[in-house]
Amino acid sequence: MHMQSPPVNSLSLDFLTELCISLEKLEMDKGCRGLIITSVLSNQPKVFSAGLDILEMYGKSPEHCGEFWKVVQEMWLKFYGSNMGSSPAGGCLLSLTCDYRIMADNPRYTIGLNETQLGIVAPFWFKETMVNTVGHRNTEVALQLGLLYKPAEALKIGLVDQLVPEDQVFTVASQTMTKWLTIPGNVSVITTKSTLNLLFSFQLWCFNLV
Ligand SMILES: CC/C=C\C/C=C\C/C=C\C=C\CC(=O)SCCNC(=O)CCNC(=O)[C@H](O)C(C)(C)COP(=O)(O)OP(=O)(O)OC[C@H]1O[C@@H](n2cnc3c(N)ncnc32)[C@H](O)[C@@H]1OP(=O)(O)O
């Protein structure tokens, strides 16, 4: 799936709605077993996603905000695999929801949950998704300081799984996907994934988020 919503793939209500509809269609397609999501913006260096569209969170009606927040949660529940450039805040969440993250090795790109730098708080399920990926201590430091990591630093703490030269991102993503798809049977993979997320799913249920 190629994201192309200039200038920076910010996650607006319209963009997220279209994304969720596309994901639902893929989920129903029995022939689809994996998804690589990437940005095809023409800017250089390339942005994966600038995160939530800040214009959606300012001066809007409570109904609009409710609708927006609901679709953010839907997006978070659905993702699979990704490759990327810069991914601040919601852009980082988008990639954290994936099973494997491949980042272009360009020090001009950054990734992280930088909400505190913006004077806002990363919701608890952003935080939990980060803890599940990089552990509690790394998350504590990252979230309190609102850190945006360069590729080498992101790899070191496990925020991304692999760095590759910029022109090879999609090729490597395809090769990685091929490897993951050699695991036989959707059911065992889905069940394993659900088991890994069991505690988190329970927490979300307690907070009435699913
Ligand atoms: C309704 C909600 C209800 C409740 C919410 C409650 C709690 C929410 C709590 C936290 C949630 C936070 C999650 C988030 O995702 S907040 C968004 C955080 N995003 C950022 O901090 C990214 C900011 N952007 C950047 O760092 C850079 O733009 C960049 C690295 C992505 C790209 O840099 P470039 O140099 O290539 O491009 P720019 O010149 O900076 O930008 C171009 C253009 O794009 C506009 N823009 C950038 N980011 C956003 C954005 N997130 N939303 C909307 N628009 C964005 C930027 O203003 C420029 O526009 P103009 O060309 O000036 O018109």
Q: What is the general shape?
A: globular
Q: Enumerate the spans where pLDDT stays under 50 for 5 or more consecutive residues.
A: none
Taking Cα atoms only, what radius of gyration do you get, to the nearest Å?
Answer: 16 Å
Q: Span from first to last CA?
A: 25 Å
Give the biggest sheet. 3 strands, parallel
Give the strand content.
Answer: 5-15%
Per DSSP, the total helix count is 9
> Could you report the average pLDDT, rounded to the nearest whole number?
88
Ligands: ligand LSE3YFK7
Give, in spatial order, the strands making up the sheet with the most strands: 3-5-7
Number of strands: 7
| SSE class | mainly alpha
Secondary-structure element pattern, one letter each? EHEHEEHEEHHHEHHH
Helix content: 40-55%
